[in-house]
Design a protein that fits this description.
Radius of gyration of chain A: 21 Å
Number of helices of chain A: 10
Helix content of chain A: 55-70%
Oligomer: homodimer
Shape of chain A: elongated
Order of helices and strands of chain A: HHHHHHHHHH
DNA sequence: AAGGCAACCTACCGGACGGTCGGTAACATA
DNA sequence: TATGTTACCGACCGTCCGGTAGGTTGCCTT
């Protein structure tokens, strides 16, 4: 029945530990969260929790990798199957945003809290994040080379995209006036089309040319 | 010569303390920053620093209010002088973004770290932030009523704007491939016009109508 | 000259935190 | 029934942190 690695502790419980820890860390921050807090939330003692984890930093590191795994599996990998660049971008922004709203916080934690890791751990996480970032920027570059992008710096634009998406975790609340799908869709609209109507925009442009 | 409040400690030194503390807290996070760290960076001891501050949380609270003061003085107040709504939006996004890139971190800190405050302090900061947020959303509502906005939810759009702007502090580095002004301008472009070219966008819309 | 006060210091305290040690109870295996 | 392993617990340790007590130095005023 069990097909997991033989000598490791119970994997299912470990996943529950990651999920619970991620939620608490997300709410209170890594430093403000004590190992005791996490243990109590799981209904055990600190010593009991240390049966599963090897240290507080290692726990954070594992959670971050868990979050990056989710991001790869649910956003990056499916995106690679989409031929059209614009559709691919739409999918990435929407599915990434939904991962943030739906998720138990693992993806969000790796956004902040990187400084709490050891330098070696930090380097590994940063490298994985960098890979994702580059994939997104390459996508924008592809769109740009097809002439479908406005005159923007693709690096800055990628950061803007990620900023909007990551910011979701700060304001989106389940049961608020937007559903997760609606919130994701608003971000897609904003990212691809911006705020202003095109006609208003071009009118403005003409006006400014006359002025100067 | 001195026209400051008579019994309070040296105001100039206090401002230096705020600036230095803000930089360290911005880099390492509030919890990971000890009072000793701040004191040493100022060339004094912890007890010496406590001559100026009444507590670690109060220091954080003061820095946040300092940041919000900056935001009011350099973004909100000048914006109120601008008649045209679109120009006002442009100005707000650009000047807010430049405040983030240029600043010593006080504005950025109040973005994170709110949870470190006492409930009463947190409520006050949240109220001030809320005022700023509402002012920005009202501006979008005004543009929308003038018919100059795309079909977006103004609340979500405001969060998107603030997300892009606040995210700046995570990636913008002085001396990088963009100047502070260029970075701010990229955010304005992204916020107002989005990524895709209008013509590409309308072509896409027509295509999808045909498909479905 | 004397007093006052701002601007620090050294030394210390109580508490919390990460982490460890040596158990124990439950269950599986043989 | 003996043996091992997993999943915990209570008690403890060293360290570091926020904060305080009480002093010293030097400038400013009167």
């Amino acid at each position: 029945m069990k097909a997991q690695k033989k000598s490791a502790p119970n994997n299912e419980r470990l996943a529950e530990i990651y999920r619970t820890a991620a939620q608490i860390i997300l709410r209170k921050g890594y430093d403000a969260t004590s190992v005791n807090d996490i243990a109590n939330a799981l209904g055990m003692t600190k010593a009991g929790l240390y049966h599963y984890i090897s240290g507080k930093k290692e726990l954070l590191f594992d959670i971050m990798n868990f979050g990056l795994d989710e991001l790869d599996e649910e956003v990056a990998a499916p995106a690679r199957e989409i031929r059209d660049a614009e559709e691919r971008l739409r999918f990435m922004v929407a599915s990434h945003a939904q991962l943030v709203t739906r998720g138990q916080g693992a993806i969000t934690i790796l956004v902040d809290e990187v400084t709490a890791l050891t330098p070696a751990q930090c380097r590994k996480i940063t490298r994985r994040k960098r890979e994702y970032f580059d994939y997104m920027r390459d996508l924008l570059d592809e769109l740009k080379s097809e002439g479908r992008l406005q005159e923007v710096d693709t690096t800055a634009a990628t950061f803007c995209l990620l900023g909007m998406i990551n910011w979701l975790s700060r304001w989106f609340r389940q049961g608020g006036h937007l559903t997760a799908e609606q919130a994701a869709s608003e971000i897609v609209k904003m990212a691809l089309g911006g705020l202003l109507r095109p006609d208003s925009r071009s009118a403005k442009r003409a006006f400014r040319v006359v002025k100067s």
